[in-house]
Amino acid sequence: MAWYWQTLISVAAALALLWIVLVVALLVLKPGTVPLKEALRLLPDLLRLLRRLAADPTLPRGVRIRLGLLMAYLAMPFDLIPDFVPVLGYADDAIVVIAALRSVVRRAGLDSVRRHWPGTDDGFAVLCRVAGLNR
C-alpha cells in the first residue's frame, strides 16, 4: 500500500511542477504590445478564420489537423490554467491560438491566412501584431 501513496504523491508533484512550468511559459510568451480590448475584437473573425483554414483542402493535411486539434482544445470545458486565475486564466487560450497560428503560417504561408481572413485590413494588422507574424 505504501507504493500506492508514493505513486500518487509523485504524480501530484509532477502535475504541480508541470503547471508551474506552464504558468512561467505563459508569463514569458504572453503578447504584451496589444491592448486586451483590441485583441478581443478579433475573436469573431479569428474563429471564422480557423474554420475556413481547417476546411481548405489546398492546405497541407498537417495544417488542417493542427487547426482541428486547436478547435477541439478551445471547445474543451477545462483549460491548462483555470479561467478563475486572474489574467493567466484566459491568456492560456490566447497563447495556444497564437502558437497554432504561427505554426500554420510557417507551414502554409502568410498569404493563405490573409486569403481566408474574413475581417478588415486593420484587423489583419492587429492579428499579425498579436501573433508576431511578419506581414
Explain what you see.
With 135 residues, the protein is mainly alpha-helical. The chain has one domain. It has helices at residues 2-29, 36-40, 43-55, 61-75, 88-108, 110-116, 121-131. The relative contact order is 0.15. It is a multi-pass membrane protein. It comes from Paractinoplanes bogorensis. The chain crosses the membrane at residues 6-29. This is DUF1232 domain-containing protein.
What is the topology?
Blueprint: H1 2-29, H2 36-40, H3 43-55, H4 61-75, H5 88-108, H6 110-116, H7 121-131
Helix pairs in contact: 1-5, 3-4, 4-5, 5-6
Membrane topology: Multi-pass membrane protein
Domain DUF1232: 64-98
Protein name: DUF1232 domain-containing protein
Q: Brief overview, please?
A:
The chain has helices at about 1-30, 35-40, 45-55, 60-75, 90-110, 110-115, 120-130. The chain has about 140 residues and is mostly helical.
* Overall pLDDT: 77
Q: Largest beta sheet, briefly?
A: none
Outline the low-pLDDT stretches.
Answer: none
Count of runs of 4 or more consecutive helical residues: 7
Instruction: Please tell me the total number of domains.
Output: 1
Compressed to H and E, one letter per element, the order equals: HHHHHHH
Number of strands: 0
Shape: elongated
Write down the Rg: 18 Å
Q: Report the structural category.
A: mainly alpha
Strand content: under 5%
Give the proportion of residues in helices.
Answer: over 70%
Distance between the termini: 59 Å
Main location: membrane
Subcellular location: Endomembrane system
Domain DUF1232: 64-98
Protein name: DUF1232 domain-containing protein
